[in-house]
Amino acid sequence: MDTFWKQVQKLLALKVKFALSGLVATSVDYGLYLLLVERVFPPVLSNIISYSCAVVINFLMQKRFVFQLKGTAKRAFLLSMGVSGIGLLLSTALVYGLTQIAFLDQRQYLLKLIATGVIFFYNFYMKRYAFERRFFEVD
Fold it and tell me: Measured between alpha carbons, how far is 62 from 58 in angstroms, rounded to an integer?
């Protein structure tokens, strides 16, 4: 049972590092989204642009600080971009769906926050697989 709790602690520590790297990338995503949606583009296009910029930043940080690369960087990058592409589709679908709610459409800052929170868990497990070829296991 002691081993189980150690594994839980390691997985939690990994999620904290992931969350911190994600916080930086999310800040870029969120800030750029709000800037674009307020001044330049409609919500869906703003989301695509801001999310895409954040994806590249996030990959570089996760490669360096979060995950232990197993395999080539090219493979991890391609898998990570594939995961991020699906994440972009999910995030954009959420943004579109949430804009249909008048309360949230008038509060884009809250709308984007909800979409980001939902996508966090999908991204953690799928990117962990892209980098380390595993989902739940810990060393």
Answer: 6
The span from the CA of 36 to the CA of 79, in Å, is: 28
For the chain of 139 residues, list the mean pLDDT of each consecutive stretch of 10: 80 83 89 94 92 88 80 81 87 92 92 86 79 65
**CB-side neighbour CA atoms (13 Å) of 127:** 30
Residue 54: closest CA among 36, 67, 39 = 36
Hey, what are 122's tokens? 């999908």
The structure tokens listed for 17 are 């590092």
Nearest residue to 96 (alpha-carbon basis) of 20, 42, 24:
42
Q: Structural domain boundaries of the chain?
A: 2-132
Expressed in angstroms, the distance from the first to the final Cα of the chain is 16
